[in-house]
Specification:
By secondary structure, the protein is an alpha/beta fold. Helices cover about 50% and strands about 10% of the residues. It is built from 12 helices and 5 strands. The chain has helices at about 10-15, 30-50, 50-65, 75-90, 95-105, 120-125, 145, 150-165, 185-195, 210-220, 235-245, 275-295, and strands spanning about 130, 170-175, 205, 230-235, 250-255. The radius of gyration is 22 Å and the shape is globular.
């Protein structure tokens, strides 16, 4: 039994581990799905604790509490200084641009397609466009495209653009259902794609992958080895390509959602600005480098 089926297929009996006779009816598949969800949540929790802002807040609070006692005052001031320097660097616009650009520059964007500049022969060879999920909010009253996160919407728009240039290709969207009673992320992506004019018959869903590694494994279980057009955020593309290739799937990278989109070259003024965009870019880069390191340690990349 798979807990990641569409929400409208989940009845009350499906949500309970016991049947009407009071006997436990959890299957191995259910236990594995719950275990996968728990591991997914644990990884997200650990990753959030290692993000720049979390580390800085820990240092600042640690240092502040240390200054309350005379015996710890000396080292506490040092901890405070480290926290302040870390926040200054992490929120600097130029630092964030440099870090995220080091990821995004590895795979160039697919150009605009025209009559004189059609898709490359490599891209025309794909039979499948895979749009990786990027999150959404189940907000009542909002259309599917407005429920999508900024990253998910940018990925989907790129996928629809490619689909119009590659009429022979199917479009697959991915994303699980986390909570019972709510549509899967893949279903929300599908609804948004249809509202953007993509025919429903061209769209397939992957709902049994909680992360990029799981999405690659799910696609392989469906019998696809590529080449596929892989659509995800530019800063996430290096890790995604590594995971898919390790899973035995050939990909044509089609990055979207570029974060480093300012000046063609960094200027001195970029280093004299501090804002939330700098912290956001730094956090994305740190998250991806942690993921790349973890994947390599586990021989998944």
């Amino acid at each position: 039994m798979d807990l990641l089926q569409p929400a409208d297929n989940l009845g009350t009996d499906r949500l309970s581990p016991y049947n009407r006779a009071g006997e436990c009816q959890l299957s191995i598949g259910t236990v594995l799905s719950i275990s996968t969800l728990a591991m997914f949540a644990l990884k997200k929790l650990i990753a959030s604790c290692l993000m720049p802002l979390s580390v800085v807040l820990l240092l600042l609070w640690w240092g502040y509490l240390g200054t309350r006692t005379a015996s710890s005052s000396r080292w506490a001031h040092r901890v405070l200084l480290v926290g302040i320097i870390s926040l200054t660097l992490a929120s600097n616009k130029g630092v964030g641009l440099l870090l995220v650009r080091s990821l995004e520059a590895r795979f160039p964007a697919q150009p605009s397609f025209t009559h004189d500049q059609p898709p490359s022969s490599e891209l025309r060879s794909v039979a499948l466009i895979l749009v990786l999920g990027g999150g959404h909010a189940d907000t009542p009253g909002l259309s599917a495209n407005n429920q999508l996160s900024t990253s998910a919407l940018a990925r989907l728009v790129e996928g629809v653009r490619l689909a119009r240039a590659l009429p022979q290709a199917e479009v697959w969207v991915s994303g699980p259902s986390i909570l019972p009673g709510y549509p899967s992320h893949a279903r929300v992506l599908q609804s948004a794609a249809e509202s953007l004019g993509l025919a429903a018959g061209r769209i397939q869903r992957i709902e049994d992958g909680f992360d990029t590694e799981g999405e690659a494994a799910a696609l392989r279980r469906h019998g696809h080895q590529g080449p596929i057009a892989l659509v995800t955020s530019a800063w996430h593309m290096p890790r995604a390509v590594g995971l898919f290739k390790k899973a035995g799937i050939s990909v044509v990278p089609c990055p979207a959602d570029f974060s480093a989109r300012l000046n063609a070259e960094l200027r001195i003024t970029d280093y004299l600005a501090w804002d939330l965009s700098g912290l956001e870019r730094t956090s994305k880069a740190v998250y991806e480098y942690l993921g790349l390191t973890w994947g390599k340690l586990r021989n998944k990349i």
